[in-house]
Amino acid sequence: MCRIYSTVLMVGTKDKTHGLQELPLRLLVMDTGKQALKCLREESIDSVISRWDLLDMPNGLLFQRILAARPKMPTVALIESGNTEQEILARSLGVTAVITDDAEGEYLRRLICQILHLEDGVALHAAAADEFD
After folding, report:
1. Do β-strands 25-30 and 6-11 pair in parallel, antiparallel, or remain unpaired?
2. Which of 26, 68, 106, 133 qualifies as a cystine partner to 7, CB 3.0-4.6 A?
C-alpha cells in the first residue's frame, strides 16, 4: 500500500480523476460547490481542483469563497476551452493554475505533482510498484 501525501478535493471534475488515481493522493470527489464547502470544513484538504462554473456556484464563486478563507491553498480552475474571460477572472482571483477542460489527464497529473511538490513521492511510488511486478 502506498503512502498518501496529499488530499485533493475535486469539484465537478469526475471525468478528470483517471489521471490522478496513480498518484499518492487521497481524492475526494464532489459534484457541487455546496458539498465542497462542507467537505472543506470537515476534512483536511491540501488542494482543490474545480470547474470554474458549477451549477450552484457559477462564475468562480467557489474559488472566491475558498481563497477568501484560505488564500494560500493551491487551487486549479478548469475553464471552458477558449474562454478568455474565465481565464482572466480566474487568474485575477489568484488561483494557482488555470487549465482548459479539454486538457489531457497526463497534463493535469504533472501539474498537480508540481503544485503539491510530489516529484519525489511519485518516484517513490513508482519504485515501490516495480518491487511487486
Report:
1. parallel
2. 26
12-to-64, 77, 83, 96, 103 alpha-carbon distances in Å: 16, 11, 18, 18, 15
The answer as to whether 54 is a domain residue is yes
57 touches 30 (CB < 8 A): no
- What was the pLDDT predicted at 52? 97
The pairing of beta strand 97-100 with beta strand 47-51: unpaired
Q: Which residues lie below 8 Å from residue 92, measured CB to CB, with a gap of 6+?
A: none
Q: Is residue 1 part of a domain?
A: no
Q: Which domain holds residue 121?
A: 6-14+24-131
CATH number of residue 61's parent domain: 3.40.50.2300
State the pLDDT at residue 108. Answer: 83
The reply to whether 44 falls in a domain is yes
Do residues 46 and 25 make contact, with C-beta atoms less than 8 angstroms apart? no
